[in-house]
Amino acid sequence: MQHKLSIRDIDRIIEMAWEDRTPFDAILMQFGLKEQEVITLMRREMKPSSFRMWRKRVQGRKTKHSKRRDFEEGRFKCSRQRQITHNKISKR
Fold this sequence. Notes:
Layout: H1 7-18, H2 24-31, H3 35-45, H4 48-58, E1 84-85, E2 88-89
Antiparallel strand pairs: 1-2
């Protein structure tokens, strides 16, 4: 399937693909690209060595596949992460 993507969209897809906790389903919902199409885009847009490094990193990673995640909803939040309230970082 052919998708008309802007350079900005391609940059965002690459960024999302590199993020450990962003599943391929999120890219599908936002940009309409299936996992295999994301892999093809990454192969086309990246240097071969960078693509191999990304592919090795992503393959089998639970967090990149919604059905394999240990949690259903929400995002992981570190217990040391500060709360942001009304644009001010609150103290613990």
